[in-house]
Design goal:
heterodimer; A: 153 residues; DNA polymerase, domain 1; five-stranded mixed β-sheet; 14% strand; B: alpha+beta; Aldehyde Oxidoreductase, domain 4; seven-stranded mixed β-sheet; globular
């Protein structure tokens, strides 16, 4: 058993130590908001926070994150930044199919935690590894700027 | 050339078309009230038809049989019903319907979502559904008051008498449920619309920002096994031998199951299933397509355009004398859909019944095939349509539903089949590769005399089983976008040379328009250049009989500042398209960097899609379709070597990223015409607008994609 700290709770996971965090979340802990897109850390659908850092859960073995603070989309609203980002996503009506949006929101929240007033170039650098097949990129950009404004207010 | 996959698919679709054909006639508003009420505790709600339910607490539930894949159909349907119901929008929620003949899409004649048909097919019936319930509520209120219905109006879920009395819809449910369902409820004059035409925030947005939206891949059932399958690497390949000892030794692996589609490892979760799948040692007999290569496919398509084809359209005489002749050959590759949610389905086959949880665009046909595969009647198959993590046509195909059903049947347990990204990319449902050879001629003044197009492409209609033979030898998707060339060439001929390299093909966002509009609009730009004319003016001069296309072109050109100076290094291109009942024009602004790579800075689009339901969704769909088109134009190709697909993941099948995203402006032409489609029409003109801007930048015409 591996002990994980997820969304403020300590949980025991029976999956093999090489199991990516994504599959422990989805298959064992019923936290399905974190998505599987590529399995190779390319698309960003699986981004979670590990000790506040955006991390690709599909390529992070659970053995590597034992004892570290893991936050998923299901609990990001418990942080002020997460709440503001989600509100901005709703105000800007960002999602289409919605499948990539958990990862987009987690990447955006991590960006704003580090950089409360990101420029377009900052947004490009932080978000370019989050793919969206529906093409919501301009709405994502607008929502991040909207959230930054709300956080600064 | 056919394969097992194709044979299965064809049987399925033909079978399902037959199964639903008779029921199409039964498309009525009252047909499935039983579903609206099923499982609801007393008191009985007001559910006059299959599409809505009002409970005594005033909650209005709109029931939608169409699949939500990002295009906003749930929102559109809810708005149509709510408008005529005069609903308080804050009390409207959306529920996904089961597979049932009541929810047949009248334009597709099956319960499926595709072809940008949802709003076109629902515009009247869904408004009628709301108006019917409204009339019953008014009747109930009038009876309660002993008043005349004519003295009552409705507003925000209340019936209001002219003397000021009012009753809420919730309060009226019990009485209204006893009113005979009227068949003649009048529809509003569009000038009275207060919901339709508004850019309301989507109902599905909150669930899609907090991780709670349920996609197919999120399905979990007690005792469920997760399957990852070794799929045939070549269409039609058969398993010659399998060694599964290593797979079975992996902790968590429960079963190895052989089905015609491949060899699946069933395990307690995705990770052991994947490890097990990767530990299988399989020898494949590649079959007839083992030697397939992109070079030979390309050559066969190009060769086919050198021979006469079947005539799809012929006006005048293209051999009429002319002063100048222009010829060009265009080519596009096969493309995958690359939905963000990999293909998956959860199936649970039990004695005498089956259930599937499927992110499918085609709940009706998928129900029919599960029935066929299990030997059950369609009514014994319950379909739960989940949210779809992208569709784009791909999720009309039944491969994932068939395989999950067979695996559950064999395993005797609920099974969730998940494709890896590589499985998804290599699953053989591709936008066709195609080659088109054009010839055009001009008179001495640069006026067009003739246009000839010879299209070589495989047939989607045959591959999908929608037809058994091509009517007059023409595959409509293969020629759409060229056959319906909107320009008034005095002499015009379009031929189709059916060419079947053997790669299974399928519907991909905007289908034949996705390549043919690129071909035609880039070539028309070549003609304009040869005639020494401005690309916008040249197009306008040939569109006298196409006022809606010309209107869109004029609007896009004006909003883009066509003809005005641009910063150094920036160049414009224009293209137009009519598809799925809508008319679109786009102007692209492009630069080229020192390595020769294009950068798309801005796209100005104008769309005439008739009356609007939700203009914000229209803008997003046009913008999203542009991105989908640009990704294909700039990056995407599926290629073959030794019968195998060479691409697998997003590293070698890349798409546009946020740092490459152009600014997009979408302008909607005001219109009182009937609604057009919106999920696909934004795509076709995007690629040629960019290609034509690249010509303006470099003087070179890109005639083969990706750039």
């Amino acid at each position: 058993m591996i002990s994980l700290s997820i969304n403020g709770k300590t949980v025991q996971v029976s999956a093999a130590p090489d199991t990516p965090l994504l599959w422990a979340l989805r298959d064992e802990l019923d936290l399905t908001g974190t998505k599987f897109g590529c399995g190779a850390a390319i698309c960003g659908a699986c981004v979670v926070h590990v000790d506040g850092q955006p991390t690709r859960a599909c390529s992070t073995p659970i053995a590597d994150v034992a004892g570290r603070q893991i936050t998923t989309i299901e609990a990001i609203h418990e942080t002020r930044i997460g709440q503001v980002v989600q509100a901005a996503w709703i105000r800007n009506d960002v999602p289409q199919c919605g499948y990539c949006q958990s990862g987009q929101i987690m990447s955006a929240a991590a960006l704003l935690a580090k950089n409360p007033k990101p420029t377009d170039a900052d947004i490009d650098a932080a978000m370019r590894r989050n793919l969206c097949r529906c093409g919501t990129y301009n709405q994502i950009r607008a929502a991040i700027k909207d959230a930054a404004t709300a956080l600064g207010a | 050339m056919t394969t097992n996959i194709l044979t299965t698919r064809r049987d399925f679709l033909v079978g399902s078309a037959a199964a639903t054909g008779a029921l199409v006639i039964g498309f009525t508003l009252t047909g499935a009230a039983r579903y609206a009420q099923a499982g609801t505790a007393a008191p009985v709600p007001l559910a006059p038809n299959a599409f809505l339910r009002i409970t005594p607490d005033g909650q209005i539930t709109v029931i939608c049989g169409l699949s939500e894949m990002g295009q906003g159909v749930h929102m559109g349907i809810a708005m149509l019903v709510a408008e005529e119901l005069d609903a308080d929008w804050k009390r409207v929620r959306l529920e996904q319907a089961p597979a049932d003949p009541a929810y047949v899409n009248p334009m597709l004649r099956m319960q499926g979502t595709g072809g940008s048909t949802s709003i076109r097919g629902s515009w009247e019936p869904m408004r009628k559904a709301g108006a019917t319930a409204r009339q019953m509520l008014v009747r109930a209120a009038a009876d309660t008051w002993g008043a005349e219905p004519a003295d009552c109006r409705t507003q925000d879920s209340r019936v209001v008498h002219k003397d000021g009395r009012s009753l809420g819809y919730g309060e009226l449910v019990e009485a209204a449920a006893k009113v005979p369902v009227p068949t003649d409820a009048p529809l509003k004059d569009p000038k009275d619309f207060r919901i339709l035409g508004q850019g309301l925030t989507r109902l599905d947005t909150p669930a899609k920002v907090n991780g709670s939206a349920g996609f197919g891949i999120d399905t979990r059932l007690p005792g469920m096994l997760t399957a990852v399958m070794a799929h045939a690497p070549v269409p039609g390949a058969k398993v010659a031998s399998v060694s599964d000892a290593a797979a079975k030794a992996i902790p968590g692996v429960r079963q190895v199951v052989h089905i015609p589609q491949g060899v699946a490892v069933l395990a307690d979760g995705y990770w052991p299933a994947l490890k097990g799948r990767d530990a299988l040692v399989i020898k494949w007999d590649d079959g007839a397509l083992g030697g397939l290569s992109s070079e030979t496919i390309s050559k066969s398509l190009a060769d086919a355009t050198t021979r006469p084809g079947k005539v799809a359209r012929n006006e005048g005489d293209v051999s009429a004398p002319a002063a100048k002749t222009i010829e060009a050959v265009y080519e596009v590759p096969y493309l995958a859909h690359a939905c963000m949610e990999p293909m998956n389905c959860t199936a649970w086959v039990r004695a005498g019944e089956a259930e599937i949880w499927s992110p499918t665009q085609a709940p009706g046909p998928h129900q029919a095939i599960v029935a066929q595969v299990t030997g059950l009647a369609p009514a014994q198959v319950k379909v739960h349509t989940t949210y779809l993590g992208g569709g784009f046509g791909r999720r009309f195909a039944p491969d994932f539903t068939i395989a999950a059903t067979l695996l559950s049947k064999a395993a005797g347990a609920p099974v969730k089949l998940v494709y890896t990204r590589e499985d998804d990319t290599r699953a053989w449902f591709y936008r066709p590769a195609a080659v088109t050879r054009f010839t055009a001629s001009l008179d001495g003044n640069g006026n067009p005399v003739s246009l000839t197009a010879r299209v070589a492409a495989p047939s989607i209609m045959l591959a999908a089983g929608f037809v058994k033979e091509l009517p007059e030898g023409i595959d409509d998707p293969a020629v759409e976008g060229i056959k319906d060339c909107p320009y008034a060439f005095p002499n015009l001929r379009v031929e189709y040379a059916q060419t079947e390299p053997g790669v299974p093909v399928w519907f991909w966002r905007s289908v034949g328009h996705s390549q043919n509009v690129y071909f035609l609009e880039a070539f028309v730009d070549e003609i304009a250049a040869a005639a020494g004319k401005d690309p916008v003016e040249f197009r306008r001069s040939l569109l006298a009989k196409e006022p809606r296309l010309r209107g869109a072109l004029d609007l896009a050109a004006r909003k883009a500042g066509w003809g005005t100076p641009l910063p150094t290094g920036m160049h414009r291109g224009v293209a137009i398209a009519s598809s799925f009942g809508s008319y679109v024009a786009q102007v692209a602004e492009v630069s080229v960097d020192s390595t020769g790579r294009p950068r798309v800075h801005r796209i100005v689009a104008a769309v005439d899609c008739g009356r609007t339901v939700n203009p914000e969704i229209i803008r997003r769909q046009i913008e999203g379709a542009i991105v989908y088109g640009l990704s294909a134009a700039l990056y995407e190709k599926i290629t073959f070597k030794d019968g195998r697909v060479e691409q697998g993941n997003f590293d070698d099948y890349p798409m546009l990223r946020i740092n490459e995203m152009p600014r997009v402006e979408v302008h909607i032409v005001p219109s009182t015409e009937a609604p057009g489609g919106i999920g696909e029409p934004g795509l076709p003109a995007a690629t040629p607008a960019v290609i034509n801007a690249l010509f303006a930048a470099t003087g070179k015409r890109v005639r083969k994609l990706p750039v």
